[in-house]
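WARN no homologs supplied; continuing
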Amino acid sequence: MWVQVNGKEQVCPVPENKQLNSLGLRGAVPLCHHFLRALVRPGDRLVDATCGNGYDTLLLAELVGEGGHVWAFDVQETALAATRERLFQAGWSERATLLAAGHERLAELVPGPVRAVVFNLGFLPGSDQACRTATDTTLVALSQAAELLAPGGMVVIAVYTGHAGGDTEGAAVLEWAASQPAKQFNSWRHYQLNRSATAPFLVLVERAK
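OK structure emitted
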């Protein structure tokens, strides 16, 4: 992470945490965390659009420090409870606002601008797969997220296509990212070449500085 030393930003090692520090880049989520660690600075404002079991929210709360803030969305109380507990155990509860709402309400509930908006699509691991992100609300949320970004900010989307409806949602996310004006946004797709065609992949959409 970054700290201010004599008015200048310097790299400072983050606390050792096996839940947050990846041992490799296998899968979309470790790659997502790699980009977030490079992007986020203390004092930033961030959004976790799908807090799930709370690991992304916990990382974001770590990265923003005491002066920043995280807004975390989920429609499942089990997800919010798990996230709330992880933040409490880390001593970072005040760094985050947990919202029992769908991410299609981003523009209504989050005051911009923000440095990053993180999406981890699909379903909550270990839960009913019938409760999962949906193409229509995901597209609404992505459009709102792009509008909330500060210059140089980024929407980061972990996409899963191996479950029912996941392929349709993934195709829609790629189409949305590709449609962003090139003078205003930089859109990327990242995926592992040595995994199956249904393996998760990462989409990054950066607002130009």
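The first strand starts at residue 2 and ends at 5.
OK
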